[in-house]
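Researcher: Let's do a round of design. I'm pasting the C-alpha cells now; please hold your answer until I've finished.
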C-alpha cells in the first residue's frame, strides 16, 4: 500500500494535533518532501489542443487552484468537515465573497449586530448599493430570529462570539429558523477556529475564517478561508471564480505552515487568556470581564454546550470613565502592543468602539478594552495589566 494513503487513514480518527501535523498534502505526491511546493503560477500548459479545449486536466490556470492552494483547502475541508473551501486574500474577503455569492438585488439579509465592524461597513455600503435590504439582529435572539425572517431573506450571517463584546448565540436555534425560511446560514468562526467549534456540524452552511489570525499565527500575513457544505459549495465556487479573488501562493503556504502548530498555540492562548480573565474578574477598576468561558458570562451555557474550547481574545469593561480612561490604560502598557488584528504570538490591546450598535447595547459601566493574549509569560502580562489599571486610576 502507498504510505501516503495509509497515513491519510490514520488522520481520520486521530486527535487534533495529529491531524494538524498531517492534513492537506500527501508528501508522496511530491518526491516525499514533507511540505508541498509553493507553486507560483498563472499559466499551466496542456499537452495538446484537445486537452486544452476540454480543459480535462487537474490544473488549468493559476486562479483556479494549484497544488499549494489545494493542500490548504484540503486541510480546511478536513478540519471543517466541508465539501469545499475557497481561499481569498483576507479575512474580510472571506466574509464579502460568500455574501456576494448568495445575495441579489431585492433580497434581504439578517446580520448579527455584534458583527466585525468592516463586515457591517460592507453591508451598509456595497450590499445596500446593490439593492440588498440589511437588518441587524440581537445576538441573544435565538429561535426568535424566526420573527425577523421575511419571504426574501436569503442569508443569515452570524458571528459567535460577537466582535468586541463576545455575546454567544444559539446557533442550532438560529439555523433551524433560517433553514425553515429558506435562508443560507453563514458563520464567522474566526474566534473559535474549527478546533473549538465546527459550524457545519451544527447545521451552518458556510464557515468563514480570517486565517490571518490563529491559522497564520504570526501577524505577518492576510488570508481568508470559506468552507461550504454540499448544498452551497457549487454556488460559492462559481462566485469565487467569477470574482477572480484568489490568494497568493506564499501566503497560502504560510497559513498551511501555521496550521501545523495551531493546536499547541491555541492550547497556550486558551490557558493564558482564561487565567488572566479570571484574575481580572472582581479586580478594582474592572467592572466586568467579557469572556464566554467564564461562568459569569451570559452566554456561558451556550459556549459550554456547543464549543470545545476558548481562544485568547476577550474584553474587559473598565469601571467608570470614558475614552480618556481607556487611553490612560492603553498608554501605560509596555508588553501589550496597541494594534488591530489578533491571533498572533504577541499580546495586543485596543479600545473597542461600539457606537455602531443598533440593537445589541454596549456595556454601560465604562469603556471596553479588548485584549489579545499572546504566547508571553502570564506573570509578565499580569504585571503589564496592573500598570494599565494603575494608570487608569486604580
Ligand atoms: C471576526 C473577524 N472576522 C474577520 C476579520 C478580518 O480579517 P482580516 O484582517 O484578515 O481582513 C477580523 C479581523 O480582525 C475579525 O476579527
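Researcher: That's everything. Go ahead.
Model: Designed sequence:
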Amino acid at each position: 500500500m502507498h504510505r501516503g494513503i495509509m497515513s491519510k487513514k490514520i488522520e481520520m480518527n486521530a486527535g487534533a494535533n495529529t491531524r494538524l501535523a498531517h492534513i492537506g498534502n500527501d508528501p508522496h505526491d511530491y518526491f516525499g518532501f514533507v511540505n508541498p511546493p509553493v507553486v507560483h503560477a498563472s499559466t499551466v500548459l496542456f499537452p495538446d489542443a484537445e486537452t486544452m479545449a476540454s480543459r480535462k486536466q487537474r490544473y488549468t490556470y493559476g486562479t483556479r487552484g494549484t497544488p499549494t492552494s489545494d493542500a490548504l483547502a484540503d486541510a480546511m475541508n478536513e478540519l471543517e468537515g466541508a465539501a469545499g473551501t475557497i481561499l481569498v486574500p483576507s479575512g474580510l474577503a472571506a466574509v464579502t465573497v460568500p455574501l456576494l455569492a448568495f445575495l441579489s438585488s431585492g433580497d434581504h439579509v439578517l446580520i448579527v449586530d455584534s458583527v466585525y465592524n468592516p463586515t457591517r461597513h460592507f453591508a451598509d455600503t456595497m450590499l445596500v448599493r446593490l439593492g440588498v435590504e440589511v437588518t441587524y439582529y440581537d445576538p441573544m435572539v435565538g429561535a426568535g430570529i424566526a420573527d425577523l425572517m421575511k419571504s426574501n431573506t436569503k442569508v443569515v450571517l452570524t458571528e459567535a462570539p460577537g466582535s468586541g463584546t463576545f455575546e454567544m448565540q444559539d446557533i442550532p436555534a438560529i439555523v433551524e429558523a433560517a433553514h425553515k425560511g429558506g435562508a443560507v446560514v453563514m458563520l464567522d468562526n474566526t474566534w473559535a477556529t474549527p478546533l473549538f467549534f465546527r459550524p457545519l456540524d451544527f447545521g451552518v452552511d458556510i464557515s468563514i475564517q480570517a486565517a490571518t489570525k490563529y491559522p497564520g499565527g504570526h501577524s505577518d500575513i492576510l488570508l481568508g478561508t470559506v468552507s461550504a457544505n454540499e448544498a452551497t459549495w457549487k454556488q460559492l465556487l462559481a462566485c469565487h471564480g467569477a470574482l477572480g479573488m484568489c490568494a497568493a501562493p506564499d501566503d497560502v503556504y504560510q497559513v498551511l505552515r501555521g496550521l501545523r502548530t495551531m493546536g499547541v498555540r491555541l492550547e497556550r492562548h486558551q490557558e493564558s487568556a482564561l487565567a488572566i480573565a479570571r484574575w481580572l474578574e472582581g479586580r478594582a477598576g474592572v467592572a466586568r470581564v467579557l469572556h464566554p468561558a467564564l461562568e459569569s458570562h451570559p452566554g456561558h451555557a451556550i459556549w459550554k454546550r456547543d464549543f470545545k474550547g476558548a481562544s485568547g481574545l476577550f474584553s474587559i469593561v473598565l469601571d467608570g470613565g470614558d475614552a480618556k480612561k481607556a487611553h490612560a490604560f492603553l498608554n501605560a502598557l509596555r508588553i501589550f502592543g496597541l494594534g488591530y488584528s489578533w491571533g498572533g504570538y504577541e499580546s495586543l490591546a485596543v479600545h473597542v468602539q461600539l457606537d455602531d450598535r443598533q440593537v445589541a447595547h454596549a456595556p454601560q459601566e465604562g469603556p471596553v478594552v479588548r485584549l489579545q493574549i499572546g504566547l508571553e509569560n502570564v506573570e509578565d502580562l499580569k504585571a503589564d495589566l496592573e500598570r494599565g489599571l494603575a494608570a487608569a486610576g486604580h
